[in-house]
Please model this.
Amino acid sequence: MALGRPVAESVRIEELRRRVEKDPASIAFAQLAEEYRRAGRVREAIETCETGLARHPGYLSARVTLGRALLETGELDAAQEELKRVLRTAPENLAALRGLAEIHHRRGELHEALAHYRTALEFARHDAELEHVIGEITAQLEPSVRAPKVVDGLSFEEAAAELLAFSSGNGEQPGEEAPAAVPEAVPEPLTDPSPEAADEPFTVTLEDALPDIPLIVVPPPQEPAAEPPVAPGSVGSAEEGDRQIAALERWLEAIVAEREKRNAP
Model:
């Protein structure tokens, strides 16, 4: 009958412990310390490493175990010193790289952590855990999405919507919502615009700047017939015409800005 994992670990630890007791100079102390660490006996792992490294200071695997055990106890400065000492001799040591990356990660030093995780991934291609952590840190370091460009207080989409409203001839002031429709409303007869409302013809020419966009021409107003004075606020007043022209100008500016953005390198 096979032994369970905890029992097997205990047997392995006991065998190594006896070997080290029998020969204190044995390098088996490094294996014993790692078994202690894996079993959760972190303090015993640290003590075993420190005792063995006093005899074998250049034994790198024992220093890696010591650094990882110190990391697990939260002694980050001491752990960092041990792992950096390993990397000075063996820059490709994967366990030391991952341990040092985790130390920076715990401290919130994301740029340093990301650099060490990426170096570790170079030696452990397609490591799913490393790729996941790198993806998470990269997402945290990405700048926030910039807000859409605004032209004269309006975004390109808003300016385009105003033009549609203007083109439909609904007579609404730019930027205002249309009033609720009244069922079965009988339209009042329209009166001709006053002579004061007559302006010079307004023609927009953008053949050179925007060759792919059809020109929009606002025709001159018809010569009004002689009529009694029109009451203030009537349709076609000069003020209403100015607002419509302003909306058209903002739309054109938005198109130019959008074209420049798309053509930018």
